[in-house]
Amino acid sequence: MRLQIMIWICLAGIGTSYSSDSVKLDSLNLIKRLREYRAPLNRFTDGFYTNPAVKYHQRKLSLTEMNLNLEQNKQDRYVLQEGKGFKQAAFEANAFLKNEGKDALWGTAAYQNGKRLGQNWSENADYKTIYPYVMADTVGGDLSAETYRFSGGYALKLNHTILGISAAYRALMEYRNVDPRPKNTSSDLEIKLGASRSLNNRYELAIAGSFRKYSQESNLKFFSETGAPIVYHMAGLGVDHKLFAGNRRNAFYDGKGYGFELQFLPKDKTGFFSSLSYQQFSFSKVITDPVIIPLAEVNSNGLKADLGYLIRSKDRYYGWKASAFLTKRDGIESKFDNKGQNNYVRISSNQNYQDEQKDFRLTAVYGVQKESKLSWDLSADIGFSDEESQYLEPARSLQFSALSGGIQAELSKMLGKSLFRIGAGGRSAKNTKGQRSWPGMDAASSVYQMLETNYAYYTAGYQQLKLNAGWDYQLKNNMGLSLKSNWIHTSFDTAHQGNQFLLSAGITF
Amino acid sequence: MKINLRALCLPLCALLCLTACKKDKQLGSKEVALTLRLENPQGLAAVSLSGVKITFREINSGKETVSSNVSGNTLSVSLAEGAYDISLDGNISYQLEGKTITGKTGALKQGLVLTGAQHTESLKLFLGQAGGGFVIQEIFFTGTLSPEGKQYLGDKYFKIYNNSGETLYADGLVIAQSAFQTATKEKYTPDVMSSAVAVESVIMIPGSGKQYPVLPGKYIVVSEDAINHKTNNANSIDLSKADFEFFYEDSDDIDNPQVPNMETVYSKFNPNNRGYNSYVLARFEKGVNDFLSNYKYDFSYDFVNDGVSFPVESNEYKIPNSWILDAVNLSVQSEFQWIVTDPALDMGWTFCAKVSDDAARYGKSVRRRVLAIAVDGREILKDTNNSTNDFEAGLRPSLMK
């Protein structure tokens, strides 16, 4: 309830900002502003603007949007711990208010309510954040989920310097009303400070530092009178902590992290773009019932680098971008001496788990954007991704690589008070390497089946078709209506398919 | 523009470094060099060991390391840091009163903590005593569920088997339930486990001494309520033909007058339907009165919860190991912490429930394996004093039709 109140406070803030700038905004044509925000080129450049100081340069114009989204995502091949998809309704309000030469203010408030489908071998939320140290059983099922998200920031221009601050907060509650009955509440807060310095009339050099705080409380209950399945505390690649398998059903995850960013960017989005960021995140997992047992610690380090070049000539633009992403996750697990009932003494710890992910990608874009005539954009990318996981005892390993590429085309046209957009794209991925080793396992065991099911997903190639369409219409008083729909069909093979739908309706001003 | 190019180079160099990243080192564990000295059973001469197999089970990971590399009663092995349960099986030959005797030997050490670079430990061997008399053949301790899914009470039973080639008499046989539980490990003081089993309830087969003969290869059934439970619960068992039942007048209990009642020696006998307690089969050396007079066991322990220690004092009875004919440690698979008998009596454990409140445990029993068929056609049951190996876990009860 408090979070809902916060949403309304944020919305009131957006409204207030709007009214204070209304005179200025009224003078700007909504469709013109929408044209900047809907430009396909943003997909190419937005990734460089994560520093709150350079966010000032991300958009030239102001826009506020409030949307109601309906989403459904379901696929037959998936990581069991993440579920086969989700369906949800979401309300989202976004605002970016630019006061050229002075400052920029932005914010987002969102509420999502839905269901995560078919999640197995994890009774936790946020698998990608806390993997592989989840609490699991062999039953699983759908999970109801509610998410609140707030973010906002401010960038202040002082002569040749821009100072920026931003914060993002997410609160999630996931639960199930039949056995097993997990109740997971997680919160994730990130605060970022940035500064940007103008090097000359074309380029800026910017730095940023961030701090992150994460927590998840997970409580699992069973109401059945006749029994409950074993609850496992997983440790990676299907291994579990044998000493605590059974009925220890409460766990807490406490994480924190920091990051640094460095950007070299053109002020007018023409020329060289480059960005380098480092993220460190660590968390500990503690069993909390009936006694406190510090089970594992995870240290994760991520490095991301992007380098791009964009040329504009009248209405045309073309460019390329090279991206590299590397992350490494170490799992350090404790060993205990069992001194007696609920009396465990930690005797040693060792790094038993390691996971490394890499992704390298080249992207090219070419397009024409005209004020009133037909505009179009064509982008293509090709990349290589690789992941390798190892577990020490028992010795298990998993490695897979894939080449993937895609092409995306989008057309847009202004007709009267309307802005129409349609797009189509295709993507294909081909597995180039797949190796797994989990010797000595019973092939009939459910944990073996889990590993094999996940492996089938990791090593599956796919073909993807994407279609999207959007319509914006300007009403009186510079208000607008917005409709958007996306559909993505994925074909892993003849027996395994996937579909993603998005339907969005909202207002813009 | 010089400045611009230098600034541009920073992310570019980082990008190149990323692509040139070498694979990280392989994972490795901290190893401890363990020297294990095997101590022969006392009082034996010219001891020789053969076929020794030592299993090291790390209790956190469940990883088992098996070694047979024993030289001169010493084994050297490298193990990852951790807490280990160590069990030994093997053959032993020795001289006693001028004769060379061969037999089985075993050893068990629970909760050995290995940290640091090296560790030396001793392991006391004991002589295996193959069961040639009465043994516990089957324990049905889980009970049943009604067709409506409700717990049904009263249909648990024990089968006691004559594993010898001679007629034995069941008169005076004692069944006792352990006071300590296999899923609740505590440091009990004084620790009498090497000489006795602490018991919380004891029942005894009545009789004058030769009133209840049991032929070779035959068994008797000691049941909770010796009635046809199927009339009350279609999922249950007809125990109306049981040989004995345990009956308590002060409880809401059923007495079948056609079936003799067990004598209650100490406390009410109520098998735990999850399998947390262990059971022993024994004979009192000097009768019930001697037992009740001289074998009281006062003990204390510190109950530790979340680092806070609470002293607890309690008292039960203890049955000397020398009186015990057979012992079976039971547990819940995911909850097991220790065995509650001397390993010379039973160095293993068996189970029906995989987890504490496992619904699948109902209607299942543990049953001793058949080792061989004797020339007279009777089954010889396996009794190596290791219930892990000797019993089949979670079977349909043999009396359930």
Automatic annotation (TrEMBL), chain A:
**Residues in DUF6850 domain copies:** 60-509
Origin: domain of life: Bacteria
Q: Which Pfam families match?
A: DUF6850
- The name on file for this protein is DUF6850 domain-containing protein
Q: What is the lineage of its organism?
A: Bacteria, Pseudomonadati, Bacteroidota, Sphingobacteriia, Sphingobacteriales
From TrEMBL, chain B:
What start and end residues bound the annotated signal peptide? 1-22
Keyword Signal in the entry? The reply is: yes
Q: Write down the InterPro entries for this protein, in alphabetical order.
A: DUF4876
Keywords (A to Z) from UniProt:
Signal
Answer whether the UniProt record assigns the keyword Signal to this protein: yes
Could you tell me the superkingdom of the organism this chain comes from?
Bacteria
Q: Which Pfam families match?
A: DUF4876
Protein name stated in the entry: DUF4876 domain-containing protein
Q: Which species does the entry assign this protein to?
A: Pedobacter caeni
Upper lineage is: Bacteria, Pseudomonadati, Bacteroidota, Sphingobacteriia, Sphingobacteriales
